[in-house]
Structure formats: structure tokens, C-alpha cells
Amino acid sequence: MKTNFKLLVLYVLTMSLTCTAQKIKPRERILSAQSEGQKFEEINLFNFGKNSRRKQRIKIPKELKNYELLSLSSRVMGRFSNSNSSPEAMILPLPNKSSTMILQLVKVSLKSDDYSSKELPSKQITKPLEITHYRGIIKNESNSRVAMSIRNGEIYGYISLDDKVGNFVLGKIKGSNEHILYEDKDISHLNDFKCQIEKLHHLKAPKELEKKSKQPAANAGKCPKIFFDIANDVVRDKGGASAASAFVEAMFNQVAILYNDEGVNLKLSGIRSWTSTAPFNDLDSYRSYRNRNGFNGDLGHFVTYNYSGGVAWVNALCGSYRYGLSGIYRNYSNVPRYSWNISTIAHELGHNFGSSHTHACVWNGNNTAIDGCYQTEGNCSRPGAPSDGGTIMSYCHLNSVGTNLRKGFGSQPASVIRRSINRASCVDSCSDNGGGGNGDEVSCAGVNNWAENTNYTAGDKVVYNGRLFERTGNNDWNDLGACSSDNCYGVDEWTSEANYKDGDLVVYQGNLFKRENNDWTGLGSCDNQNGDPCSGIDPWQENTNYQAGDKVIYQGKAFEWNGAEWIELATCSSQPGIKLNSLSKNNFKKIALNVYPNPVKEFLNFKVKHMKAKETKVSLRNILGKLVLTKQVNRISPGATVSEKIDVKALPKGIYLLKITNGKTSVAKRVMIK
After folding, report:
1. Domain boundary residue among 540, 566, 585?
2. Which range of residues forms the domain containing residue 264?
3. Sign of the torsion angle spanned by Cα atoms 159, 160, 161, 163
4. What is the signed CA dihedral for 352, 373, 251, 264, rounded to 10 degrees?
5. N or C: less crowded end of the chain, CB within 10 Å?
6. Structural domains of the chain, count
7. What residues pair up with 362 in beta bridges, in sequence order?
8. Domain termination site, one of 550, 585, 620
9. Backbone angles phi, psi at 641, to 5 degrees
């Protein structure tokens, strides 16, 4: 519905938030922990000092150009001897060449409720080692990624930066108590892995996956459970079943953070450590054994040193082919190679979840390849290689550009993986909603409902069954989240400094508008909390003197008086019974909110005018939508102005939403704490 915007158009705030799902990435974990008031203890786990003598004593591969040898503080390491004493959140200084990386880490849980770890063939329960898993970021590097697992005397770490090809690896040097921090790109020439997916191992996708989802399908907040068998060669190398299990747990933490970045939450459901030679040595025999003996998980994965590369069936969930095998590496000249192992496991699991290689001729909606890092699989031309490195499902490690784990799976493979998981009937929902952002609300204002006979292209957004979806380049749908009941959720007010384009949303004088064809379309009142744009607006009344800004419902539509004429705002979802022939004015004034200073450091002042009800609720939410502060203001007389002050000194820097609810009316402002 077009709106006469003659006077209205001149005052609103730009909308920079489009409708995107909030995946719980490492940065969001840190922000969430800070907003919850978790204390980040500074843990000085490493002894600092010159290491030239240690470098002379310890054999280090000549290929490593820049590395740091680190000694652990046995006193501080004692904090991690028991999971109850290890910090929930911590700041960990990590020396790197001439500087120090400051890691911000939060404890995470990896295991499913039915997790078990046993030795085979004895079936004895594996004696657990105390190991604590963390994820987070490098301070002031919001797009970095850190996964770290700590047990008494040993650390397994993986660190990725946004602007670097390659990763930092932190691990214990074999035969020494020292740890090493190095860049894995220095030994990338060792990465000769090829995934052995032959045509034999491609399973035909179920019909519901072949359709490329003409119709959107909601994310179900599911958590695939991964079960591992550890070959005897790994068990012997690690010194027994307990140490081997801890090693696989640490690898799984690093694999899981890659999937978590894509909105997928993996759970570790079981480990079986073979203390003698396993009765299988390849994918076919592993499948045969596990199909006979069963396992508690959605995917079974066999890890061994005695295999070159990896192999897995594609589209394997919920069937008898739900298995993969990864040939992992021992240390290279005493140096651990965690990043290579996690890349291999993540790659093979990606096949189980339905993704082909990026050089396969199945992508882009026209059966072409995403990259040309290897000869194409199928009848399509070979494109170039990405200059900034390939993604997890690529073979870019085989040429000079390398694989950049920071890029994750890439949008199209990630979409296939999510779709496969969300539609798998055998995969259970997460007890914690998966950590993938599927429970977060998003603004669906101004987005049309899905229509069956419409030709959608990449980037188009639709609403279907109360959720927001975006069309992908692979002719599929990404589930971005549940539509918020707050009509103006995440939308900023208009500003004269912004250059608006079609599709932009703004809030003006408590109403929501969308830019279309160089004009503004009214979408309803921000006071709406139930999906009806007319919710909370009174019907027009005869013989009433209306003031500028007042809203009424008339003949099933919402109008606002701008001082000169009535502006049509929206069509009501349910029409009030009253129908009148003419509109006139009224003397009612609407609630108004003013906040200052904004941005704010210490104390946020706000003033609310024209209060209607006796009680007012004040709430402040962080960027994740989590309530961080609430306050009640009572004994308010009608029409009064209320001035209050909020202490925000203890809150982390960032963007917040201040919302004032007076009776049935609400008004909100974005606030930046600096």
C-alpha cells in the first residue's frame, strides 16, 4: 500500500540490519558470556622467556619459519586437573613471535546425553581423562576463530584469523614437555590428501532432497551425533585408550567449531578405542561391522593412521551407508598436525551430509563447478582457483592457493549440509536448540509470503510458516530464523544522512516503512506485538479532535493524522466492527522516547513523554536478543513525563535495544555502549 509521504518522509533511521540469522559463532559466544556477567579470568598458562636454548635442544622441522616454543606452568595447569575447577571463561595470553595474542575463551560441552567411551574388544569402559574444551576468538579480532582443549600437561589448539590463509597450530611436541605454536602453511606441501569418493560411493539423494526445495523447509534445530572408532595404531601411538579418546575429543572440538560457524551443532555420541587390531580396515568392512553391531549415533567415523586420504558415502544420513573413514596423520618430525586432521574429518563428514566437492559440476544452479582447484567431476568447464584459498570441500590444498579454513564450507555446500540435516528424520532436535541460531528471531517486516508459482532468484527472501527464508545460488532455501512478533525488531530510525535503496526498512514516528520504487510503503505500527499491524490502535471516534501523529483504525485500515491529512499506514489483519463515513481530528498524544547520550559510556538517560498507564517496564537487550537489564517504574499519572537513568558501565561495548512498555504501548531505541 503506497503512503502519501509528503510530511512524513523527512525523519527516520537507516536500517543496516537485513534479515539474517544469527549463527552462534565464536564472537557471539564471547559477547553472550560477557552480557551474562561471566567473569573472564586471566590465566597465565605459559612461562614467558627466551627459548633459544630450547630451540637448540628440540628437533623442529626446517620448514617452520616462525614458531614459538612454550613451557606450561605446572601450578596454573593444576586448575585444569578437574573440570569443576577449570574456569568457565578465561583470557589466555599466548606469545607469538614478537607479540602476544590475547585469547578470549568460553567453556563448551561436546557430548550428547547418551555419550559413552569403551575399549574394544573387551567392552570395558574407558577411564576418562579430565579434559576441558573451549572456543572463542583473539581479542579485537572479531572474525577470528579459536578452538582449544586442555588436559593436565597438554593443550590441543587451533587458531584461525580472518585475513590469513593458513592457521596457527598449538600442541605438545612428541617426546618433550614443551609446546609449539606454528603456522601450518609452512608445511602445507605435505598435504597430498585426495578424497576417494568414487561413483560407487555416491548414494542417490532422497526425493525430497532432489527437488532443490521448491518450497521452503524450516531448520529443525537438529544436532547430528557423531560416533568414532579409533584404530589400534592410533591407540598405541597415544599410549592407551584414555589418551586416544582425549585426542579424538580435542579433534572433534576443532571439527565442530567449523560446523558451528555454518549453523550446525554436532555432538559427540561415542568413542570406541581398539586395543587390538580392529576387524575392519576400509570403508566397506567398517560399514559391514557397524551395521551388524550397531552404534549410538547418526554417523559412524573410523580414524586410522593406516589410510591415505579419506572416503565417505554421500547423502548417507538415516541409511545403512552412514559412514566415513579419515586417514589422519601422526606428528611431522615431532610436531602435531591438528589442522590437517580436522580438515580431513570435516571434509568426509560433509560428504555424509550430502555435499559434493566444489570442483563437481553440480553447483551454481546450472551444474557448473565452484572452483577449479582440481579437474572437474562431470561435464563442465574448469573455472579458476580462488586467490584467497579454497573451502573445506575443495581440493585447493593440492595447488598454491591452499585451503582456507577461515572460509568454512562456503555458502552453497553449507546450504546443502543444513538442508540434509534439517530434513533427516533420524536426527534428533537439540536440547539446547543446537547453538546454530535457529531459535533466534529475525525481522520479517516487508517480506512477502512464499508463492508456489513464483520464479525466485538468489537473494530473494520470503516468509513461510512463520519463518524467514533466503533463496540460494544453488536454487535452495536458507532458513534464517523465526519471524519476530515485534514488527520493528532490528530496524533503525530514519536519518537524513542515509541514502536509501529499494527494500530498505526504516522506523518513523513509531511506524515501519519500506522503500519501494523511490517511495515509502507503510507496513504498520511498531507497537504491534501479535502480527496484526493494527494491534493496539483504537478505532476512529466521531467528534474527537486528533493531533499530528495520532493513529486510528477506519474501515479495516490504519491511518495516521500528520496535521493536515490522514495517511494510510496498513491494512488490518482483522477489521474492527466500526465503519464510519468520514474522519476528523482528536486531541490524543502518543508516547515518545528520548535517550541521551548515545553512544554512552557510563550512564544512559532516557525521557518518556505522554505516559498512558500507571506502570512502565524498562528492558535492555544485547545484540543477541538476550535480556541484560530490566526495571519497573510505578505510580505514573496519565500524560506524565518520566525521566530515569541507567548505569551501563559494567556492560560490554556493543549495540543494545532499549524498550519502554507503558501499558499496551511500546517504544524502542537503539543504544550504543562504547
Report:
1. 585
2. 26-201+220-355+409-422
3. positive
4. -50
5. C
6. 3
7. none
8. 585
9. -110, 130
Interatomic CA distance for residues 669 and 594, integer angstroms? 8
Q: Is the pTM of this model over 0.70?
A: no
Contact criterion met (CB below 8 Å) for 581 and 539: no
Q: Are residues 46 and 178 in the same domain?
A: yes
Q: What angle do CA 619, 624, 625 make, to 5 degrees?
A: 30
Give the 3-state secondary structure of residue 178. Answer: coil
For 233, other C-beta atoms within 10 Å of its C-beta total 17
pLDDT digits (tens, 9 = 90+) for 459-477: 788 887 777 888 876 667 7
- Is residue 18 a part of any domain in this protein? no
Extract the C-alpha cell encoding 318. Answer: 538415516
Residue whose grid cell is 607479540? 99
Among candidates 463, 361, 343, 462, which has minimal Cα distance to 412? 361
Which pLDDT tens digit goes with each residue over 574-587?
Answer: 433 333 233 333 33
Within 10 Å of residue 625's Cβ, how many Cβ atoms?
15
Strand partners, 327: 304
272, β-bridge pairs: 118, 229
Question: Is 69 in the same domain as 126?
Answer: yes
3-state secondary structure 396-454: HHHCCCCECHHHCCCHHHHHHHHHHHHCCCCCCECCCHHHCCCCCEECCCCCCECCCCC
What distances in angstroms separate CA 526 from CA 255, 547, 625, 655, 667, one per listed residue? 42, 19, 17, 19, 7
- Compute the C-alpha angle 243/245/249, nearest 5°: 115
Contacts (Cβ under 8 Å, ≥6 apart) of 198: none
Sorted by sequence, the CB contacts under 8 Å of residue 379 that are 6+ apart come out as 361
Three-state DSSP state, 208: helix
Half-sphere exposure of 50 (CA within 13 A, CB side): 3
* In the block, residue with C-alpha cell 552462534: 24
Split at pLDDT 50, 70, 90, the class of 565 is low
Amino acid code (one letter) for 46? F
SS3 category, 204: coil
The DSSP-derived string for 41-77 is EE---EE-S--HHHHHHS---TT--SEEEEEE-HHHH
Percentage, residues of the chain above pLDDT 70: 76
Same domain, 112 and 151: yes
In degrees and rounded to multiples of 5, residue 557 shows phi and psi of: -130, 155
Q: Give the whole-number percent of the chain exceeding pLDDT 90.
A: 32
Give the burial class of 10: count Cβ atoms within 10 A of its Cβ; 0-12 exposed, 13-18 middle, 19 or more buried.
Answer: exposed
